[in-house]
Amino acid sequence: MKSHPWFFRMSLLATTVTLCVVVLGAWVRLTDAGLGCPDWPGCYGQWDVPNTPEAIAAANEAFPDTPVHIGKGWREMVHRYLAGILMLLIYGLGFFAWKQRHRPGQSWRIPLFLVAFVTFQAILGAWTVTWQLKPAVVTAHLLGGLTTLSLLWWVTLRCNYLGGTGRLAASRGLGAFLAAGLLVTVAQITLGGWTSTNYAALACNEFPTCSLGEYWPDRADFGEGFVLWRGLGVNYEFGVLDHPARMAIHLVHRVGAIVVTLVLAGLAWWLWRSGGIGRALGIAVGGALGLQVFIGIANVIYSLPLGLAVAHNAGAALLLLVLVTAIHVRRPLATS
């Protein structure tokens, strides 16, 4: 059974907007615009960015520690506007799902969960600013965005409008393999978020070695690099860790990349050899994995150019979407 056509259209639109919000959020973070507006939900006490001499002077007086940077302010506000549109879409999706809950094949539990989840995600967005880019909060905000994306894509797939009723051939152990692939991917994304929010992406500036021809420098400080909570009242823009701690974070992220590559390469091979739709999914998993590995290496070699850094975040989202699709295709059709 299929969901209502309008529900499918809203779900697909919300998924697309979420992907844009995730990528735009990465761009905001990577252009150091996360504190482009030092307050929330407005910007220097108003709903747009101060752009007249009088408004800028008043904003600088009210926020002397964060003088107005118009470009950064607008990047942050555009992200907030789009996130607000997404929130309204998800609220509408939840309302529509509840109204249609008695329709055979209508998904409603996950849409209702998303209403609560996206509200909490907005709170995380506020804390990201008011707690001055605290790494644990910014990483959680990233994971929340990707969780929202994955759940919306799952709901969209379950609407059964995207063509084909192909299912993966029954294969012992495939479910566990898919779960392991998803688990290591989420863990690696978490490490990637921790690396980015602690400004550790270039702590190792060589490949395949880390620095000065060393693969595993003894000076890396793992204890300091993975302190999750350092209290409030600290401005984390540009990071607070010394180089050995950042190096430790980067090294762990590289180890995670090796683990993910091995697991997902094995999963891609398993899917491909299953034939049918599994072959297409295997190619998709392998392609998304290869692209992500290439971008990650290029980011180190070319010193984190903005386009490649943003693409690395988009690649993580793409990998998640492919894995969610594979899990959906393995499961029997049912209401979620």
Question: What is the topology?
Answer:
Elements: H1 5-30, H2 53-62, H3 70-99, H4 109-130, H5 135-158, H6 174-197, H7 222-225, H8 243-273, H9 277-301, H10 306-330
Strand content: under 5%
User: Any idea what the radius of gyration is?
Assistant: 21 Å
Instruction: Count the DSSP helices.
Output: 10
Secondary structure: helix percent: 55-70%
Outline:
With 336 residues, the protein is an all-alpha fold. It contains ten helices and no strands.
Kindly describe this structure.
- The chain is mostly helical and 336 residues long.
- It has helices spanning 5-30, 53-62, 70-99, 109-130, 135-158, 174-197, 222-225, 243-273, 277-301, 306-330.
- It folds into two domains: 1-163, no CATH class; 170-336, no CATH class.
- It starts with a helix and ends in a 6-residue tail after the last helix.
- The radius of gyration is 21 Å and the shape is flat.
- The mean pLDDT is 93.
Question: Can you give keywords for this protein?
Answer:
flat; single chain; mainly alpha; 10 helices; about 325 residues
